[in-house]
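Input record (one chain):
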Amino acid sequence: MGSSASKPEQSGYQWKASGTPGVSMPVLDSLQSSPETDASRAKLVEQQIHARVAEELKKLQKR
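The corresponding structure, as predicted from the sequence alone:
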């Protein structure tokens, strides 16, 4: 009921490594600025798997 949010707004993921990264900074920047999430990647992979399974089933049914 207050005028401020109960949790502070997070501005995104901040890279916090114990040492230097094994990839270049442009790659890290690209990953951090990507709108893609783990959930969206998982959904895409699942769709690709379903498509592949359907394709293989069609091949087997033709035999």
